[in-house]
């Protein structure tokens, strides 16, 4: 919000000209895209492990493209359907593989949390697309609203946490000063990383299509698989199978994004043809030493 004040210097711009629809969508982007997505992801990570959690990130671009198709932002194409089907099947196989090799007791609770997280991320991208592309809002202001609304709900959730578990007494974070400083440093680093990530995502959503933005955002699980192989010392066949499934997933996502690019080029060529026909309809070829305007045949020009 401080960055917004320095950038806009006008209170009406910060509060989106007091437009109720814009304010409501910015509120939803913070509640769904930051609070629901991150809280449910952390709960899923807490009730499972990183090896089981990482494949669920790959559902973000798949859910984003599916929501875009349902809401009319994307169009059904043969390549897009094939790519989404391949990515969805490979993601399901990767989740099953990680569930069978991880040390998680029950997978029902983390599955529920992670599914909500992926669906919330996809919904947030759709909302950002509407705010940035259709309503032409600043990406900095949208990012600030998302983070502020999400942070407020995070604080409220922390205050209400003891009552959720029927524990009236609050839990102290730590009694050590060094521990408090470490926690604050970690929280600052995480919030800074989220701020940069959401700023880049909102800017990229404004400049490109939602399916392509979600495609590049899905590269995180690849690094998770590599780090898991190095740190946790996974078996070679598990890592090899994971890499193969990731390759199928990325191929499917690239195939669906290529369909979007092909469709965009076709629209561009169609616009060029329409402009050429428009110019031809205005200026006719010379007839009997005169230029005739087809739109107004009474007006003629002599040939010099």
From TrEMBL:
Show where the EamA domain sits: 2-91, 112-257
Coiled coil region boundaries: none
Q: Which GO terms describe its cellular component?
A: membrane
User: According to Swiss-Prot or TrEMBL, what is its membrane topology?
Assistant: Multi-pass membrane protein
**Keywords from the named record:** Membrane, Transmembrane, Transmembrane helix
Keyword Transmembrane listed: yes
Q: Where in the cell is it found?
A: Membrane
Spans through the membrane: 21-41, 53-73, 82-101, 107-128, 140-160, 180-201, 213-231, 237-258
Under what name is this protein listed?
A: EamA domain-containing protein
């Amino acid at each position: 919000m401080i960055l917004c004040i320095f950038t806009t210097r006008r209170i009406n711009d910060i509060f989106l000209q007091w437009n109720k629809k814009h304010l409501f969508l910015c509120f939803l982007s913070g509640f769904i895209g930051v609070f629901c997505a991150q809280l449910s992801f952390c709960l899923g990570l807490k009730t499972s492990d990183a090896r089981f959690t990482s494949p669920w990130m790959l559902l973000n671009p798949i859910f984003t493209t599916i929501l875009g198709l349902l809401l009319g932002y994307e169009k059904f194409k043969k390549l897009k359907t094939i790519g989404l089907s391949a990515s969805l099947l490979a993601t399901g196989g990767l989740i099953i593989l990680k569930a069978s090799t991880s040390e998680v007791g029950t997978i029902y609770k983390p599955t529920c949390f992670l599914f909500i997280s992926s669906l919330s991320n996809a919904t947030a991208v759709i909302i950002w697309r509407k705010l940035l592309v259709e309503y032409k809002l600043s990406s900095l202001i949208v990012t600030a609203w998302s983070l502020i609304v999400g942070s407020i709900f995070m604080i409220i959730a922390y205050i209400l946490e003891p009552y959720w578990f029927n524990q009236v007494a609050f839990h102290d974070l730590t009694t050590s000063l060094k521990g408090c400083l470490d926690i604050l440093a970690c929280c600052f680093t995480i919030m800074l990383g989220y701020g940069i990530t959401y700023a880049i995502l909102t800017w990229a959503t404004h400049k490109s299509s939602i399916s392509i933005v979600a495609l590049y955002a899905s590269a995180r699980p690849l690094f998770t698989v590599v780090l898991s192989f190095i740190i946790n010392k996974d078996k070679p066949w598990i890592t090899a199978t994971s890499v193969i499934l990731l390759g199928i997933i990325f191929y499917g996502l690239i195939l669906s994004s290529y369909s979007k690019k092909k469709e965009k080029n076709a629209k561009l060529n169609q616009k060029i043809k329409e402009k050429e026909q428009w110019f031809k309809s205005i200026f006719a070829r010379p007839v009997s030493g005169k230029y005739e305007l087809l739109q107004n045949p009474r007006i003629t020009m002599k040939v010099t």
